[in-house]
From TrEMBL:
Residue stretches making up the Methyltransferase domain: 70-166
Protein keywords: Methyltransferase, Transferase
BP-aspect Gene Ontology terms: methylation
Domain of life: Bacteria
Keyword Transcription regulation: no
InterPro entries given in the database record: Methyltransf_25 (IPR041698), SAM-dependent_MTases_sf (IPR029063)
Protein name as catalogued: Methyltransferase domain-containing protein
Organism: Cohaesibacter marisflavi
GO molecular function: methyltransferase activity
Pfam families: Methyltransf_25
UniProt KW Methyltransferase keyword: yes
Length: 280
């Protein structure tokens, strides 16, 4: 325990550990995440239901998805994939969570014009991905949870999925959101109301910020009667300029930053998140 507490007290190097899959593969945490995803009334794990409907509407209209092949990476419980299938898209959802995919399959539209989405259990950084796609989605800041090298890997993999003229759409958390964050330490019994494990447990959360790179980390230590584990929840925040620069360095010309809620051009007063479209 002494070594673990020393680790919690020391400022780590950015992206030194990667535990994101644990959020989706540890059964108790995965169930907690799924509950937040399908709640529909908050933005804790996914957007509110009315926001999702609006986003699906503009994607479907802008890209004329009827009959198009669409891959939703990190599809979770199918909140976007199932709705896009109802718009006529041929959708493949990819996710690492068995519980989220079970929910997605169980709520897939049986009467979709081109059939229900196909759901695939896979790690989008490592496993084979659907090819010959017209549109690839990565929604709700999955991009921000990855290290710079992982982001380069994923961008190359998404590019390889696309047909000529295809497009990638994803969203990120903004530098405006980063400015609202503070470094902090929290120690609580059953931290986050039982989110991390069956009660009883004790949770220690240490939040770190790197203003020079707009990077944040929530580092959790969860101590249960029968085990102790850590979660590193990294988050990279972007300005429109920094995101465009990163994409151009990866070989994507003229990325278009957008208001992700409406698909319209991004204004100067963008809020906590925005999106980007790149075409190949």
């Amino acid at each position: 325990m002494y070594d673990l507490l020393c680790t919690m007290a020391e400022r780590p190097a950015p992206f030194c550990q990667y535990t994101a899959p644990d959020l989706w593969t540890r059964p108790h945490i995965a169930a907690s995440m799924l509950a937040f995803h399908i709640d529909g009334s908050n933005d804790l794990a996914s957007r509110k239901q009315e926001s999702i409907v609006s986003i699906v509407d503009w994607i479907a209209e802008r890209f004329a998805v009827d009959g198009k092949r669409v891959c939703d990476l990190g599809c979770g419980p199918g909140l976007y994939a199932n709705r896009l299938a109802q718009k006529g898209a041929q959708v493949t959802g990819v996710d690492i969570s068995t519980s989220s995919l079970a929910y997605a399959r169980g709520h897939a539209p049986s009467a979709a014009p081109t059939g229900a989405p196909s759901y695939r259990l896979a790690n989008y950084l490592e496993d084979p991905l659907p090819q010959e796609q017209d549109l690839v989605l990565l929604i709700y800041a999955d991009y921000c949870a990855l290290s710079p090298s992982q982001r380069r890997t994923l961008l190359a993999r998404m590019r390889a999925q696309l047909n000529p003229g295809g497009a990638i759409i994803f969203d990120v958390f903004s530098d405006h959101m980063f400015q609202k964050l503070e470094q902090s330490t929290v120690l609580e019994a059953d931290l986050m109301g039982g989110f991390w494990a069956p009660s009883p447990y004790v949770g220690l959360k240490k939040s770190w910020l790197w203003p020079e790179t707009t990077t944040g980390l929530d580092h959790y230590l969860i101590a249960c009667p029968d085990e102790t584990f850590e979660i590193y929840n990294w988050m990279q925040y972007f300005s429109p300029h920094s995101l465009k620069d990163e994409l151009q360095q990866c070989g994507f010309d003229a990325p278009a930053v957008i208001d992700f809620q409406t698909g319209s051009a991004l204004g100067a007063d963008y809020g906590d998140a925005f999106g980007v479209i790149v075409t190949v």
